[in-house]
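Bug: token stream looks shifted between consecutive jobs. Job 1:
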Amino acid sequence: MTEKINHIKIYQRFLEIKANGGRVGDLLKEFSISRGTLYNAIRNVQNGDTAGLRRCLSGSRLECLWGYKYKARFLSLPKNRSAETVAELQKIIWEMKADDFPIYVIAEKLCKERSTILHHLAKRK
């Protein structure tokens, strides 16, 4: 589990550096990791932990999808309301809806009101 937390921290810093126009090399030095490890961590957070997801699908499908695909991305979002943050949140909401999450479950998992979720989904159309 600590590896997953490190992936989240790495992804958070990656988003900050990407938003500020910084260099990836600084991130590599900060975490003392190789470039391949960095991109593996980013891919793991963006696409979800596919190996863990396959193992978990014998149980509750939505809980597995949340835990292995969306949770890390949501927890990595900055707490501000910048355009990049809102766009990433909308992307998460749209993908969750495409994976057949009901509106009330999306709202519960993302700690948002149902009207907010519906507002973001309406923007997609």
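Job 2, same session, no restart:
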Amino acid sequence: MSRKPRIPSYRLHRQSRQAVVTLTDGVTGQRKDFLLGKHNTATSREEYKRVVLDWEARGRRLPQLEATADLTLAELIARYWKHVEEYYRRVDGTPTGEVQAMRYALRPLNHLHGKMFVSVFGPSALKAVRELMVTGYLHPKYGPQPPLCRTRINAQVKRIRRMFKWAIENDLAPPSVHQALCAVAPLKRGRTQAKESEPVKPVARAVVEDTLPILRPLLADMVRLQLETGMRPGELVVMRAATSTWRARCGSIVRPRTRPNITGMNESSRSDRRDRRSFAAIYPWTCKRSCSRPARQWRKGRPRCDRRARTRCSRRRSVGRNAARRRDRASATHRNLMDAPSPKRSSATTEADPKRNRFRTGTRTNYGTNAPSN
């Protein structure tokens, strides 16, 4: 038993608050929405009946396929160019560089296939336009057009496909055209006759030295620092004194430091541990919340836990008993902007502390009792 053909329903379009009906092409399967006017009114319901009857009279075919069957590429380019001039504009109304790039992309297409119908334009015709860009050609109006490099040709082919995508969006071309053009692969390096673009080389140092007197003093110092260190422009702009290490023996050479990886920094080096403490003290947002809070406030709300729980909370242990003293030491280090060695424990202090000394000598000491040791 065959199913009865379903009639599209009359429903509300939520974005525009209008009535809408969706029709499907019986051959290609393409779907399109038709706005009917204000929802739940007599006018919109009459329009709904008219659109559905017209659709069934055509054999359940959409009307735009018959209207665009005789559209040429020259006419399509003329319609698309109005969209290009209106769309590719800056906030102040001036055209962007994409307008000129689109002009050069559509020029060989109009020159070679201007009189061809849009419905019959396929991958072979697009490859012929691409070959014209590889070898160059003589335009009757604009004169000789030089050959383009491989990357530029691939970009121009993408712009041509973008025009056909716009045509399908505005019911000016069948969807099969753009789908067929997407099958054309871009040109690969070393597998085509198109030339390669020349690599971008660095500016000569003599040119930079001649430019320094013209620059402002601050900008000139930044350029000199970039020449000596090889820093990227972004790293040079965001550099601050608090995040840099100044060494007196190196003169004006600065070694910038970015925000360190506090969880993965090497713990074997004492200088690295001092960097962790200094950055955690001055930039507390680099750690998690448990590490950035003051030690007294953190210990006030810390529950008692066993050794296994303390092992799991490795980041909380970094705050520790001496967190306040470490922050003060780190602040002093950054105020001086020097890599001063961390203070070492004197031998007198070590000998006076029996609890620390017992692990080195191997002897045991009784604590908290008045009984003499044996």
